[in-house]
Predict the 3D structure of the following.
Amino acid sequence: MKKLMQQIIKLKNPTVVGLDPTLDYIPQHIKQAAFAEHGRTLKGAAAAYLEFNKRIIDAVCDIVPAVKPQCAYYEALGWQGVKCLAKTISYAQKRGMYVITDGKRNDIGSTMQAYAAAHLGQIDVDGETCTPFGADALTVNGYLGSDGIKPLLEILSQDPDKGIFVLCKTSNPSSDELQDQLLEGGESVYGLMGDMCERWGEDTRGEYGYSQVGAVVGATWPAQLAELRQRLPHTFFLVPGYGAQGGGAKDVAGAFDQNGLGAVVNSSRAILTAWKKQGVPGEQFAQAARAEALRMREDLRSAIPALAEQA
Amino acid sequence: MKKLMQQIIKLKNPTVVGLDPTLDYIPQHIKQAAFAEHGRTLKGAAAAYLEFNKRIIDAVCDIVPAVKPQCAYYEALGWQGVKCLAKTISYAQKRGMYVITDGKRNDIGSTMQAYAAAHLGQIDVDGETCTPFGADALTVNGYLGSDGIKPLLEILSQDPDKGIFVLCKTSNPSSDELQDQLLEGGESVYGLMGDMCERWGEDTRGEYGYSQVGAVVGATWPAQLAELRQRLPHTFFLVPGYGAQGGGAKDVAGAFDQNGLGAVVNSSRAILTAWKKQGVPGEQFAQAARAEALRMREDLRSAIPALAEQA
């Protein structure tokens, strides 16, 4: 995740823009053009998503270090949507952005190896090396234990820029049903998961002290964020739940260390639908997204003063 | 999951064939034809997967009730692979099989709704209704709690044939790291997850007494399988780990109720690579798969006598 940290420092901005398109978010002129060319079909919708994503990426790539496309919204358009996901990843990387595929993938053994190759690596087709999706990082779910994480570590060890983020304490209200349960001895489930992240990442620590095995911890749980920051000194956090889900800059401040590093904060809806909230015409959706991304950057900087002092 | 149970009873066979293709499993003649037409590319590999899957489906569709394509292997071929997944699902359904997409998907709210629409439902594209993948059932991961499951229940309530299987006690050795941990009060994590499955499925119970919310419990844990069968009387089980992972018919017998229902047992590798194990030429891979599926059916019938008596 070296590249991600370098970009955060360079842009003094620990933001990731969640690329979670739906047709409701996309202005009429983009949809009309796509439907005119491809019909009101999955292909037409996927064309609208791709155009929308590209313009959002263009609008924020010089101020935001990373994007996080959420697989679900692409899969909802079938394989045409998944093709759009691949093109979105590639476009964002061409514009210099770090790409975290939010797939929350999980499985074991050779199946997890297939996910690792799919999203972060390469696959050999009878002697030809092909890149299926080629993202920089992937979110994963650790419910299956080490058998689900170890197949990813090989890819991480080969490239310091690659990373994974393991679900630890998620932003949603019902995350308490399992994650907050206390184990015999008083440990919480999410605490145990956090400890496993530290251990899984042990051999992949880089120059900023963080490993390539990060954790997902929601902005909606500021106390747990701060607790986990202390407890997991080598685990970089991906923090969803800022903005639309209710978390603010003060809530996420605890995720950062004394150098202003330690986390990247996601915003999806507030940026993608900024044109609606700002009440501007759909043609100005990209400018509106940029304005919201700048507002968020300033909001985060105000709560993380050490970040602005990073060289 | 009504259709699944009806098919199991009709065929007196609680087997699901896991469609987890890799190039290693596919005979040379199929690969050569696909590469000749599409090159040694992701598209070429996807064409080989699809041809392989179709012939496996043809070979078992009159004796096996269901197939379970594992998303990871398709994603490893990029969007071309995901297109192959969609075509595989559609082909299996045309041949009368019940299709469980093994994606272990998990997220919350509108994102989980998108996964539900993607894999089990439909999506509205500006007034046109489109079906992205259209499987009959989906495996999911419940680490995020009810917020990750409830968005699926709406689709289940609209169609008694649809189902989900929530990871409970997985087949892999390290599943103990989290799932076997004991909570304060002595309950295990997988036990808590099992209880949640019963609760989530409460309003979707069908004529056989089972709900549309199933659970994944590995064949490699016979004691836990039997324990969970007693404890979760309305939760249908998807049982991986038979065959290649070490579980046998006696190990899975405890997953079934006194009527011989209650579970469907997966075999992937042993069926897909039967031609290698039987030492027959690659041209006979489909017949070899059928022979292994028949062997497995007899093996399961011998351990579940009540199944053979089902009308």
User: Anything to note?
Assistant: Chain B has a mean pLDDT of 96. Strands of chain B lie at 15-19, 66-69, 98-105, 123-125, 128-130, 137-140, 163-169, 213-217, 237-239, 263-267. The longest strand of chain B covers residues 98-105. Chain B touches chain A through 74 residues (CB under 8 Å).
